[in-house]
């Protein structure tokens, strides 16, 4: 149907939703504009309300409450999937996330669970401007007791969604606006393009990419979500232009941090670059850098480099947006700096 | 002519699937007739013909088409249909390059080009690297007759402006310019002392007579000795006393290049550019200087400090206006224990790109490349590549920042003015009488002034510093364009003094940036 | 025992329990803070008598002790929770404001609970349990925007939510006149939600009105907005009371215990008091005995 024989990410997610609705009748979906024929702003819920009219609920524009409604449903044995049209709007739900969803299970001494899934797209590069383009996952990362999962175009999106629905914990499944229309580039014969790919087990696996059969590498670039294609472009450029080989670790589980694949890769490369689309300060790269140096100081031969968006707004005009968001060039330069300080 | 365009109606969709053509290509269609089914993530829609005519389809069924593209044209007349046939119909969308199509690295491509190797011969999953090409070349070399091959193989000259006289490795000599006749060459080799004993003028004459190309105003110092099968020495070259130049193939030195006493230059092929300034006791040579890869190239206007040592058993390329300062060391091989016991055995070229600086006493290890305009701080030990424009320091050298930052225009003007002020202060300290003048000062009847933009209008004897010269000065006025690093007009000791101070600020005027009197200071 | 006597006994137990809490607080035996319900007992006791703890749910707020006791009758769990004991209803993790037992929940952020109660109603409706989801709010919670988002959704989707608004006239220290505009009742009416409004401390009146409200919800499946004007005699939490003592004294004349107690025989009232004191003493003794909550061994 589409480029390279892969189906588009939005389509894969859509089919996965149909699959979980067919498999379990305790799953509900709530969100704005999710009914057919519109099928959601990014069309991920298409066909769902026609097939399951009683279990797909289109809602008022009340995100602050919707998180609570979903929490209430989850407390009482349903498994709601809440679609938030833009990741930016998660900000409206932060009271529910911080003071309810993430707390109920532990503060009620494990008497309850809150098995809800929040699906929402993050990311810019579409000119949507400051309030529809952000990558706010770092704000969620600081909230204990929730699972933050970032889907990338190389992950098994069906498996991620199914795992999120099956999870007894609250799961934020972060999608990406650009990803939806792109092919879901799953490894074929353990390869994506020129890169060999290793995939960890568990519900939310990490993918590690290497162009040298995991035998040598100048640095590990850890990334996730919509930054993965940017990073793959960058490491491809590093190979083609400089013959510098990097490993790439594409996390899906951002919280709680699960960094074994990163540590394994750093043990081979001795250097780490973090790449995220969100703003730099207090970002996911900072958390990863801190944990990697705690766990693998002896493996690190060079300082950790962080690539992220400038601490500011995501402007609408394309050149301004491009200047603000981290690019493949930024990743290339971060690696070149590491090369320069190679000891 | 009518067009059927896939319209974009939804901010979140960029591609649509061309699901089905409802009419045959080149069939007649009516206005309003549904002709194609298009599927977006949002909906499946039938698109109607905007008018009657013959439809010419530009895409196949089952193809993803970017929204906004023309997917078909409708010819309303035979002429239009004919024009589509000859011209636009050929404008089929190019198929997207298959994933991974460009999978050879730049180095691999360059090396393959140098060796005229078709990369498709390398059958490999993943990227094709320089090493893959090298291995193929080695296999072919082993198979073919042995030969020197490309001496610069694998050394990128990007970022390095080589001297104009440089001969690409492996190429034929540029004519026979400077080729020595065999008997003379033999006599030079067999009796160096006889040549050393000649006076400077006699040396020049002897070389010319023996077939060497030696320009005007060339000075070969007392006790110096030059030998190579081909020798090309341009105008104004000076080699100080007790120089020893021994090249196995060729020695070329560009105009106005000079070295202080005790130069020792031993390698296979040496190409020195124009206007190079070399200090005293500079030594190019060391182990392996007769190796086929012992190629030395030093770009125009480069600076080679006192007691610099450059080992040349593999190519060493020093770029234009590079600084290799006093007592720094460039090595192209190491020395040590057995490779069979796992010790490193390294032989690799070194490149110092244009305008890079190697600080006092720094060591550049075999295989390193100092990027253009990078700075290596004094006493650093460089073991890897230093990116262009960066500042590296330490043992081992690490990049700690940038070598420069671009000053604003107003800052440039301020710095230009300050040179005039500093010159005035310096001249006063030297005991010269200086007096106030507009935009500067006056000394010995010559005004020295700074103007942001020189457009003429300065009369009498004057030296004008500016960052933009847009007029030629009249007689008596010399204009120093600080940004273009050009001198317009001529002048005496005051001009020389200004040039000298500018040089101390890193502003070297061409030509001959190193060689003028320091004037009054 | 008459229905009134039962209600009275529950109210008295809540009252004495909380007075005891204030004593224990003064003795430094409580963890953190506590928000007492003293003066408002008729509301919780009157409403909750119509709910079935096995089916219906309650989401309460920071001032939740009265609701909790009326719904679960778990005095020991509550007391040991606020004393930081391992035997607490949430193992000492929640403390005074964060309780959970069976179908009872409470949380400490105003407004936060209203959408959750709405979601609970949505889930129960989908499951077809017939449960009523009750949420207790105060006048202060009317300042939180999510309250109105939830009213909208509960009405829009016909959800069985009983909104009980206990207007005790003070949001912490701020009198209602300084924090609330317009009509409390009309707020819900604007969303097409049925309402009732009482200004009384008479538990029998409240009991009757709540009975009508719960019956309407069970009948229609639609939300109901019950406004109860009330008064708290105790401070917001502890030692933070700036109200005019005369105002409080005047209100004490309408103490729900006095109002209801006057309708009981003296000997019955005394028997109830004895039982309440005895149970309370046992509860306190047991809670004092219970082990403190400890972190799990690493």
What does this structure look like?
The complex is a heterotrimer of chains A (343), B (521) and C (298). Chain A has 343 residues and is α/β, with parallel strands linked by helices. Chain A has 13 helices and 14 strands. In chain A, α1 (9-23) packs parallel to α7, α3 (63-75) packs parallel to α4 (94-101) and α9 packs across α13 (328-340). Chain B is α/β, with parallel strands linked by helices and 521 residues long. Helix content of chain B is 17%, strand content 27%. In chain B, α2 (106-114) packs parallel to α3 and α7 (409-429) crosses α8 (493-504). Chain B starts with a strand and ends in a 17-residue tail after the last helix. In chain C, the strands form 2 sheets. Chain C has a 7-stranded mixed β-sheet with strand order 2-3-1-4-5-9-8, sandwiched between helices. The longest helix of chain C has 24 residues, at 3-26. At the A-B interface, α9 and α13 of A face α2 of B.
In short:
The complex is a heterotrimer of chains A (343), B (521) and C (298). Chain B has 521 residues and is an alpha/beta fold.
List the helices and strands and how they pair.
The complex is a heterotrimer of chains A (343), B (521) and C (298).
Chain A: H1 9-23, E1 27-31, H2 48-51, E2 56-58, H3 63-75, E3 79-83, H4 94-101, H5 104-107, E4 117-122, H6 137-141, E5 147-150, H7 157-166, E6 171-176, H8 177-180, E7 191-192, E8 195-199, E9 207-210, E10 219-224, H9 227-242, E11 246-251, E12 253-255, H10 260-269, E13 272-279, H11 284-296, E14 305-309, H12 318-324, H13 328-340
Helix pairs in contact in A: 1-7, 3-4, 9-13
Chain B: E1 2-5, E2 15-21, E3 28-29, E4 34-39, E5 44-48, E6 53-57, E7 63-66, E8 70-75, H1 78-86, H2 106-114, H3 130-143, H4 182-190, H5 192-196, H6 200-209, E9 213-214, E10 219-220, E11 225-227, E12 230-233, E13 238-239, E14 244-253, E15 258-259, E16 264-272, E17 277-278, E18 283-285, E19 295-298, E20 303-304, E21 309-311, E22 316-318, E23 323-324, E24 329-330, E25 350-352, E26 357-358, E27 363-364, E28 369-370, E29 375-376, E30 381-382, E31 390-393, E32 398-402, H7 409-429, E33 434-437, E34 440-443, E35 446-450, E36 462-466, E37 477-481, E38 486-488, H8 493-504
Parallel strand pairs in B: 9-12, 10-13, 11-14, 12-14, 13-15, 14-16, 15-17, 16-18, 16-19, 17-20, 18-21, 19-22, 20-23, 21-24, 22-25, 23-26, 24-27, 25-28, 26-29, 27-30, 29-31, 35-36, 36-37
Antiparallel strand pairs in B: 1-8, 2-4, 2-7, 3-6, 4-5, 6-8, 31-32, 33-34, 34-35, 37-38
Helix pairs in contact in B: 2-3, 7-8
Chain C: H1 3-26, H2 41-48, E1 57-60, H3 65-72, H4 75-82, E2 100-101, E3 104-106, H5 113-127, E4 133-138, H6 145-156, E5 161-167, E6 170-171, E7 174-175, H7 184-189, E8 194-199, H8 203-220, E9 224-229, H9 245-252, H10 256-261, H11 266-289
Parallel strand pairs in C: 1-3, 1-4, 4-5, 5-9, 8-9
Antiparallel strand pairs in C: 2-3, 6-7
Helix pairs in contact in C: 1-2, 1-3, 1-11, 2-3, 2-8, 4-11, 5-6
């Amino acid at each position: 149907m589409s480029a390279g024989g892969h189906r588009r990410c939005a389509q894969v997610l859509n089919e996965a939703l149909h699959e979980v609705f067919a498999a379990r009748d305790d799953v509900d979906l709530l969100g704005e504009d999710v009914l057919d024929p519109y099928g959601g702003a990014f069309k991920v819920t298409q066909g769902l309300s026609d097939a399951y009219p009683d279990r797909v609920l289109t809602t008022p524009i009340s995100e602050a409450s919707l998180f609570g409604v979903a929490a209430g449903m989850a407390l009482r044995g349903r498994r709601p999937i809440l679609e938030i049209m833009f990741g930016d709007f998660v900000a409206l739900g932060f009271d529910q996330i911080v003071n309810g969803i993430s707390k109920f299970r532990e503060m009620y001494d494990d008497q309850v669970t809150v098995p809800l899934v929040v699906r929402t797209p993050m990311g810019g590069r579409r000119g949507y401007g400051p309030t529809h383009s952000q990558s706010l996952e770092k704000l969620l990362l600081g909230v204990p007791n929730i699972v933050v999962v970032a889907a990338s175009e190389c992950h098994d999106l069906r498996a991620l969604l199914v795992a999120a629905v099956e999870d007894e914990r609250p799961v934020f499944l972060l999608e990406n606006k650009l990803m939806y229309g792109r092919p879901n580039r799953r490894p074929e014969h353990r390869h994506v393009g020129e890169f060999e790919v290793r995939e960890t087990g568990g519900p939310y696996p990490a993918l590690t990419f290497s162009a040298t059969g995991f035998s040598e590498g100048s640095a590990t670039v850890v990334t996730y979500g919509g930054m993965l294609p940017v990073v793959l472009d960058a490491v491809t450029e590093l190979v083609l232009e400089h013959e510098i080989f990097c490993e790439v670790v594409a996390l899906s589980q951002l919280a709680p941090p699960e960094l074994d694949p990163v540590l394994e890769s750093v043990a081979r490369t001795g250097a780490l670059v973090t790449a995220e689309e969100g703003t730099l300060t207090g970002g996911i790269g900072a958390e990863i850098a801190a944990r990697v140096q705690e766990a693998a100081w002896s493996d690190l031969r060079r300082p950790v480099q962080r690539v992220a968006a400038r601490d500011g707004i995501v402007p609408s005009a394309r050149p301004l947006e491009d200047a603000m968001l981290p690019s493949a060039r930024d990743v290339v330069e971060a690696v070149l700096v590491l090369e320069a300080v190679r000891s | 002519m009518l067009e059927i365009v896939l319209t974009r109606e939804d901010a979140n969709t960029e591609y649509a699937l061309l699901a089905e053509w409802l009419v045959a290509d080149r069939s007649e269609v009516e206005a309003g007739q549904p002709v194609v089914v298009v599927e977006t993530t949002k909906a499946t829609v039938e698109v109607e013909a905007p008018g009657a005519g013959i439809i010419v389809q530009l895409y196949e069924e089952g193809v993803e088409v970017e929204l906004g593209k023309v997917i078909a044209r409708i010819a309303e007349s035979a002429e239009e249909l004919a024009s589509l046939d000859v011209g636009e119909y050929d404008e089929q969308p190019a198929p997207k390059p298959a994933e991974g199509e460009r999978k050879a690295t730049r180095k691999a491509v360059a090396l393959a080009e140098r060796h005229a190797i078709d990369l498709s011969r390398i059958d490999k999953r993943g990227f094709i690297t320089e090493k893959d090409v090298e291995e193929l070349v080695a296999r072919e070399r082993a198979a073919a007759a042995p030969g020197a091959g490309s001496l610069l193989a694998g050394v990128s000259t990007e970022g390095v402006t080589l001297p104009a006289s440089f001969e690409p490795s492996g190429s034929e000599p540029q004519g026979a310019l400077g080729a020595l006749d065999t008997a003379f060459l033999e006599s030079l080799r067999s009796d160096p002392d006889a040549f050393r004993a000649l006076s400077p003028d006699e040396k020049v004459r002897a070389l010319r007579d023996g077939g060497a190309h030696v320009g005007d105003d060339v000075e070969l110092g007392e006790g110096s000795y030059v030998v190579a099968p081909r020798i090309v020495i341009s105008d104004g070259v000076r080699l100080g006393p007790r120089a020893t130049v021994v090249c196995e193939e060729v020695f070329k030195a560009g105009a106005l290049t000079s070295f202080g006493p005790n130069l020792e230059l031993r390698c296979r092929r040496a190409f020195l550019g124009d206007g190079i300034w070399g200090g005293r006791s500079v030594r190019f040579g060391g182990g392996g200087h007769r190796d086929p890869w012992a190629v030395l190239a030093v770009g125009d206007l480069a600076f080679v400090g006192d007691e610099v040592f450059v080992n040349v058993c593999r190519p060493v390329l020093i770029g234009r206006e590079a600084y290799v300062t006093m007592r720094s060391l460039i090595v192209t091989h190491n020395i040590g224990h057995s490779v069979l016991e796992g010790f490193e055995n390294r032989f690799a070229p070194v490149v110092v790109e244009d305008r890079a600086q190697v600080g006092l006493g720094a060591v550049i290890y075999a295989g390193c490349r100092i990027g253009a305009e990078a700075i290596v701080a004094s006493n650093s030990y460089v073991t890897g590549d230093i990116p262009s424009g960066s500042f590296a320091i330490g043992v081992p050298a690490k990049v700690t920042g940038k070598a420069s930052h671009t000053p604003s225009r107003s800052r440039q003007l301020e710095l230009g003015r300050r040179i005039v002020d500093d010159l005035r202060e310096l001249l006063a300290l030297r005991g010269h009488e200086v007096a106030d003048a507009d935009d500067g000062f006056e000394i010995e009847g010559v005004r020295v002034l700074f103007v942001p933009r020189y457009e003429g209008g300065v009369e009498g004897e004057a030296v004008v510093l500016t960052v933009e010269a847009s007029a030629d000065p009249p007689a008596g006025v010399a204009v120093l364009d600080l940004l273009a690093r050009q001198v317009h007009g001529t002048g005496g000791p005051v001009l020389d003094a200004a040039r000298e101070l500018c040089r101390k600020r890193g502003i070297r005027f061409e030509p001959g940036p190193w060689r003028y009197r320091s004037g009054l200071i | 025992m008459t229905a009134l006597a039962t209600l009275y006994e529950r109210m008295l137990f809540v009252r004495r329990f909380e007075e005891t809490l204030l004593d224990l607080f003064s003795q430094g035996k409580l963890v953190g803070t506590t928000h007492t319900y003293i003066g408002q007992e008729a509301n919780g006791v009157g409403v909750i008598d119509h709910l079935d703890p096995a089916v219906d749910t309650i989401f309460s707020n920071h001032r939740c002790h009265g609701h909790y006791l009326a719904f679960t009758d778990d005095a020991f769990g509550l007391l040991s929770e606020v004393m930081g004991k391992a035997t607490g209803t949430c193992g000492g993790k929640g403390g005074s404001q964060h309780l959970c037992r069976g179908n009872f929940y409470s949380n400490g952020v105003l407004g936060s609970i209203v959408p959750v109660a709405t979601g609970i109603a949505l889930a129960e409706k989908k499951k077809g349990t017939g449960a009523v989801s009750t949420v207790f709010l105060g006048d202060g919670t009317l300042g939180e925007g999510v309250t109105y988002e939830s009213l909208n959704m509960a009405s829009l989707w016909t959800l069985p939510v009983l909104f009980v608004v206990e207007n005790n006239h003070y949001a912490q220290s701020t009198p209602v006149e300084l924090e609330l505009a317009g009509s409390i009742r009309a707020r819900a009416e604007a969303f097409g939600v049925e309402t009732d409004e009482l200004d009384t401390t008479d538990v029998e009146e409240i009991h009757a009105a709540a009975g009508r409200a719960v019956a309407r919800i069970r009948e229609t499946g639609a939300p109901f907005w019950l406004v109860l004007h009330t008064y708290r005699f105790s401070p917001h939490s502890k030692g933070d009371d700036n109200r005019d003592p005369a105002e409080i004294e005047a209100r004490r004349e309408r103490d729900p215990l006095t109002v209801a107690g006057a309708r009981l025989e003296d000997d019955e009232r005394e028997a109830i008091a004895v039982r309440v004191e005895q149970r309370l003493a046992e509860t306190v003794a047991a809670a004092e005995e219970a082990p403190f909550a400890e972190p799990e061994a690493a």
